[in-house]
């Protein structure tokens, strides 16, 4: 009985010291959070315009360069690499699996252009 009382007392002391530590750190934590929020990049049109992603939609007639960008391969990639990239992309973008019919048609068009 006495040992359980000692353990309970030590547990309460640990909780108390932990709460004291947290309460003393709250003012600095607030300042750090404010600095972190202020240092986040702004999401405006200029930031988005300078992103690393391909800007613009599809061209009216697909070129070899655009086909290579769509399949994420080199424009002079061999047929085996083109087919592998096409298969991998179609697994995630096939209309039967919830993908877009438009994107799957563009993938097929890109594969046909790069295989020629």
TrEMBL record:
Kindly list the biological process annotations in GO that this record carries: protein import into mitochondrial matrix
| Keyword Transmembrane on entry | yes
Q: How does it sit in the membrane?
A: Single-pass membrane protein
Q: Where is the J domain?
A: 66-116
Q: Matching InterPro entries, A to Z?
A: DnaJ_domain (IPR001623), J_dom_sf (IPR036869)
Task: Quote a single Gene Ontology cellular component term.
Answer: PAM complex, Tim23 associated import motor
Query: Membrane-spanning regions, if any?
Result: 6-23
Location of region: Disordered: 93-116
According to the UniProt entry, its GO molecular function terms are:
ATPase activator activity
Q: Does the keyword Phosphoprotein apply?
A: no
Q: Which SMART domains match?
A: DnaJ
- Compartments it resides in: Mitochondrion inner membrane
The record's keywords, sorted A to Z, are:
Membrane, Mitochondrion, Mitochondrion inner membrane, Transmembrane, Transmembrane helix
Member of which family?
Belongs to the TIM14 family.
The protein's job, in short, is: Probable component of the PAM complex, a complex required for the translocation of transit peptide-containing proteins from the inner membrane into the mitochondrial matrix in an ATP-dependent manner. May act as a co-chaperone that stimulate the ATP-dependent activity.
Which protein is depicted? J domain-containing protein
């Amino acid at each position: 009985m006495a040992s359980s009382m000692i353990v309970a007392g030590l547990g309460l002391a640990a909780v108390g010291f932990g709460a004291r530590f947290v309460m003393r750190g709250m003012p600095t934590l607030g300042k750090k959070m404010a600095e972190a929020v202020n240092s986040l990049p702004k999401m405006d049109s200029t930031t988005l315009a300078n992103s690393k992603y391909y800007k613009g939609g599809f061209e009216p007639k697909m070129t070899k360069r655009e086909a290579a960008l769509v399949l994420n391969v080199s424009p002079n990639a061999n047929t085996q690499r083109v087919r592998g990239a096409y298969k991998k992309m179609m697994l995630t973008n096939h209309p039967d699996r919830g993908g877009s019919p438009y994107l799957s048609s563009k993938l097929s068009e890109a594969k046909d252009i790069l295989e020629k």
